Amino acid sequence: xxxxxxxxxxxxxxxxxxxxxxxxxxxxxxxxxxxxxxxxxxxxxxxxxxxxxxxxxxxxxxxxxxxxxxxxxxxxxxxxxxxxxxxxxxxxxxxxxxxxxxxxxxxxxxxxxxxxxxxxxxxxxxxxxxxxxxxxxx
Length: 138
Fold this sequence. Notes:
Layout: H1 5-21, E1 27-30, H2 31-38, H3 42-54, E2 58-62, E3 68-73, H4 78-86, H5 91-137
């Protein structure tokens, strides 16, 4: 089943933004984070990823577990690629910048994980409240 243009554009914009933040390098994301950021269902997410990978636009590899995957955007526009290459200063600055970027990426990943876990906790609290309500009514 083919994706709607709007949905396709949403995923392309999301992955281009993440690719820019990672300077075109491979990055790891949780599927739940992609769903949260794009506002799509898991079935739509799966179809979108399959579509982007089939088009040769996105490379997907297994992540640290089944809930994560490693992504690399393959078709960054030539202008963006040149911009990324022109921004390559001396090795010392690159090393320092890459360390800072790695820490920033790790912090962002931790923030996303915390947000995902907070959402899960809130859902469990709601379900617990429902169970308690049912028990009190009996």
